[in-house]
Amino acid sequence: MNRDRRNSGFTLIETMFVLGIIAVLATIAIPMTGNQLSYLRLSGDARNLQNALMLAKMRAAATFTQARVYVDLNAKTFRIQTWDRNAATPDWKTDGGTTSLSGSDRFGYGSISTPPSFTQVSIGQAPTCFTRTSAVILNTACIVFNSRGVPISVSGKPTATEPPIGTNAVYLTDGTAVYGATVSATGMIRLWRTGATGTANWTVQ
After folding, report:
1. pTM (2 decimals)?
2. In terms of residue numbers, what domain contains 85?
3. Hey, which of 32, 41, 116, 124 would disulfide with 192, CB 3.0 to 4.6 Å?
């Protein structure tokens, strides 16, 4: 009497065939998943930076003082600071916490040599940050807003009137793409994206 095939198991060949299909699909899917995760990490960090710039601009207007986004290029972190003029010794005060970049994300623009249109004369990070006594803080980048939401230099004058003009930008990359958060002379904040190699093809995000 023949055994009912519905009650029989899989043969070794059938099992190996199914495992082979799963292996092929995994080989295709895993790199795609990894690329998608990298894209999400970098774009998330870029959005966080853009939001920090917007918040710093609003803080400056709300408190009638100066506010800045302080970027530590080596530590791969950034934070919002406001100028506390009511302290016994007026100084920069950090508002909220410090945000760290994800994974392999870092501040930089790879081999890209051209900035987004109508933003900078030449590509580069924002000027270095300064202490309350106007001493340079190495390996940093700062974008500072006055109470009118206009980016200013360490002297307190609008950056549109002082060289280097058009330097209000912070770039970050993971080696495959570059994001740039730029601030115009009027305080308009934009986020841009391009590939990390070859000719820059910046698009507004």
Report:
1. 0.81
2. 43-204
3. 116
